[in-house]
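Good morning C.,

I know you're traveling, so I'll keep this short. The sequence:
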Amino acid sequence: MSGDLGAEVVVRAAAATLDKYTDIELILVGDQAELQDLVTRIDGENSRLTIQHASEVVSMSEPPADALRKKKDSSMRVAINLVKDGSADACVSSGNTGALMATAKFVLKMLPGIDRPAFISELPATGGSLHMLDLGANTQATAEQLFQYAMMGSIVASDVVGIDRPRVALLNIGAENIKGNDIVRDAAALLQESTLNYVGFVEGNDLFSGTADVVVTDGFTGNVALKTIEGAVGLVHHFLKRAFTRNWLSRLQAMLASSVLKDLAVEMDSRNYNGATLVGLDGIVIKSHGGADSLAFQHAIDLAIVEVRDQLPQQIGTLLQKETA
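The tokens, ready to paste straight into the viewer:
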């Protein structure tokens, strides 16, 4: 019921998902009357789509503590409760990020041996993609927590992209072993002694070079990096549009290069990478971008389906037991 574009986006994504998969059932959580009207108009009758009423909504600007204490019948809380009691296998939300994390952590609890959850998402890179975490769940992290992030990131990259032994790197201010603060260097020492495929430090300007499949950092640095990437993509779009609309000659060149530009637009379309997993929880919760349209939200649902089928939390728990045995 939250997100920047309202419930219609979610209903359209749900309808498209049911067309794509024949073995999936979806539960829409929120105001019964509003959702039923949207479902009737967009998808008609579908036995694999049900509505769970929730009388409250967490606003995008609401403090997480208030949402947790005061809105126990919010669509967000009800959806996560469905995962807790086994009525649903995963929750996908484009609502208030802080409230989603606080509610999910409170209701689902952490996996044994994991201190804090982390947001991980897939990003485009040379020759494929990379997974980066933490993207904003926690502003600080200890060396042990960065090590935990690395384990979880390795499992996600293996599940989502199908990479055998993903290459794991730590984001740092230099590639040399002497660079960085004590926390990053201590995390590197833990990773070197683990069974993970640790490849060392990676700098910001080398993130998308294809040298790593998983990049690990604290939530403050990760969120700044993510927002910088999004801004850079927008800047490239702006410069391309300005260059190809400057005069009649540039417009003619744009027409000649239209197929190349269309392919580039598809590759750089952030909607194809929508959906950040809140890993470390004893359950699956996917955070969609607040401004996601129906195509982007559908991608977040696709991600949830992959993680349910691959039993992501169980895999993380198994790897953690192996590394700490």
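Safe travels,
E.
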